[in-house]
Design brief:
The chain is of the alpha/beta class and about 800 residues long.
Amino acid sequence: MLAYRFAFLFLALQLLSCEQDTQSSTSAPTTAAENTPRTNTELAIYKDASQPVADRIADLIGRMTTEEKVAQLTAVWADKHKMETEDYAFDPTKAEQVIPHGIGHLTRPSERSGSGEPGRSGAETVTYVNAVQKWLVEKTRLGIPALVHEESLHGLTAKDATSWGQPISIAATFNRRLTRRLYEVAGRQAASRGTHVVLAPVVDVARDPRWGRVEETLGEDPYLAGEIGLQAVLGFQGDNDRWNEGEVFATLKHMAGHGEPEGGNNIGPAHISERTLREVFLYPFRYIVQNGNVRNIMASYNEVNGIPSHANGWMLNDVLRGEWGYEGAVLSDYFAVRELHDRHAVAENLKQAAIRAIRSGVDLELPDREAFPYLVEAVNSGQLDEAILDRAVGRILKQKFDRGLFENPYVDPDGALSNTEADDELVRRAGTESMILLKNEGVLPLAEGLTVAVVGPNADRVLLGGYSGEPAHFVTVREGMEAHAAATNGAVIYSEGTRLTEPGSWYKDPVVAVSEADDRKRIAKAVKDVASADVIVLALGGNELTSREAWAESHLGDRPSLEMVGTQNELIDALAELDIPIIGLVFGGRPLNISNLTDKADAVFQCFYLGQETGHSIADVVYGTVSPSGKLPISLPRSAGHLPAYYNYKPTARRGYLMDEVSALFPFGYGMSYTNFTFSEPRLGTEQIMTNGNTTVTVEVTNTGKVTGQEVVQLYIRDDYSTVTRPVKELRGFEKVTLAPGETRQVTFELGYDQLNYLNGNMEYLVEPGTFQIMVGNSSRDADLQRTVLTVIDQAAR
């Protein structure tokens, strides 16, 4: 860090001797020729890979014009089609007009048409990226390659890439190693196609299930989001600071407070105290910054207490960089700098928006060049200190040097990776571990050879959710059940039953409701179709149209209700009259009110989204090849009127409702198995520690059932008495173990500062003396937890 600062001091001294005095104080930008302190690049330090990166950065910035610097802080997306031929091939002659000074990022080249849907094959993407890089390296003055970014929320968002379940489903696995393996797949595929940066993972804490982006998150708990989010980052980037083949730079999204918007409306204001902001919404970011060397962070669209995140210097400069020591880049969300002007109304024009954003710590404007080009004028007129511009440029250039782009900007088209059979097996396994069994009255696992009716709006539908690519295949519930039945002398009857919406696309605006009259005809047909079945598998819930990112008033995705869309409850009622066992599968991106289903079905799974192997994962679990092991990463409320429903509430919350239940229908951490597990009383390594001390808590877990299963051992704490109110319980550890029948496993957790600290009345992190409830079990529900008491003694009192 010292060398890095010295390099910039050296750079500043160099800049003083440059031809800055020739820049007019008017708004007219200078040309490249007027502001070029050094032009000889043959012996340039920045081209010498043996030189320290800080020196290379300083040398290169010292050679750049203001226009070239600003270009490095912008990206090209829609405008990239202005430098293409009619068949979307790169056209160098057009590029001279579009990006004459180079570019910082190339946005989502896997797309062909610019409609938001991927289209290029892996090899085609590499050919396109190589052509752009060749032009930048050979035809721009300084030869600076571009960073290429893609979406990779649940697999690379591209043609023939691997697509697993939405992040909310991966969080349900509570499996760190599995998470890392999945995101390693995405990293390899992205890197092989010329990508350097992925805009993932999302570590927003989701506290309002009306919000349409819940599926993109890792649930309601900050500790779980930090742990699973860290594994995603390590999967993308590896364990060390070096870039290795098959790795890409991750981006944490969205900082901060995005997951509890006013009214559940995407981008709505976040009315959050500094304490809650730090302890809940900023916790995953801080944890991953301090443990994962993440290279990029994306600011959030929303405002926090009146300050839009893209204009929040306290959050992005003081906290992120000052307190946490973050040295990476801060990226804007798409069009969010512009929205400081035309949505938040905190900037009178785009130039003011750009100045405020970069001063507040935003380094790069995505996805296109809208506001940041005005920074040339702002620097030339003295409205923006050029040192602020240089600092941001240095952060972007550092990634290019660290990635080795100046030495090797090209990728082999023959090496572009697509989905493999091994990837299928991994996604299939992840799907089984994501399925959360909420109820089972003895119907599961199913016996072989039965006639199974597969019914419902999600029974024979591609279910990927948002930010999805074009996987080479998708196995529907119907297809998976049919494949299993064909191999085991069973039979499958299919009937649609009802629909959620008319056909549409997550990317496109219209969402058209179905005719209830037509639906009721489908329900009547389904009742007749399945009358001879031994069991009904009923696939319900939501889809990518009923829960999605509401990125514009013409493209909405939030709902004021958690009721299931359309006539789904009518379908449940009609099938229940047949007196045939029902197994409910609830898909979609967020919690729904499934009380009617849980009342009338014999077994119920919360599935969210399970990925391209959905049907195979369902069959594996329903027939007992795999015992379910998923746990709820977000509480399932009884209705929208029961919000908020998160488990880690304060002691004065949830007092009760008149003539209604106040608790969640199913709490955070809950999930059943086909076997049974018992927990011993937790044992402390020592029952008393000092405020700066540590100990352990150990519990024995035994599989007392008849089949092998996986259990998630969960550690919760509660500070009995504190100077500032604390939640009734907080997750502070978890471990997923596999146990054969009769097997016992000892699980040990650390207890110390990291687990016990909180922000006191002076907003200082510390451990207070007193007693702590230490709770270990298999859900956040009190009935599922064993307890002991840890006493913490004030060190000063000793």
